[in-house]
C-alpha cells in the first residue's frame, strides 16, 4: 500500500506546483 501513499504525496506536490504556477 506504500505505492498509494507515494501517489498521494505526488498528487499533493503537483497540486501545490499548479497553484504556484497559476500565481
Question: What do you see in this structure?
Answer:
- This protein is mostly helical and 23 residues long.
- The protein has one helix at residues 2-22.
- The radius of gyration is 10 Å and the shape is rod-shaped.
- It starts with a helix and ends with a helix.
- The model has no long low-confidence stretch (mean pLDDT 90).
Coarse shape: rod-shaped
Distance between the termini: 34 Å
Provide the structure class. Answer: mainly alpha
Strand content: under 5%
> What is the CA-based Rg, rounded?
10 Å
Give me the secondary-structure topology.
Elements: H1 2-22
In short:
The chain is mainly alpha-helical. It contains 1 helix and no strands.
Question: What are the defining features of this structure?
Answer:
single chain, 23 residues, mainly alpha, 0% strand
Amino acid at each position: 500500500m506504500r505505492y498509494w501513499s507515494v501517489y498521494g504525496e505526488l498528487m499533493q506536490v503537483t497540486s501545490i506546483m499548479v497553484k504556484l504556477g497559476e500565481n
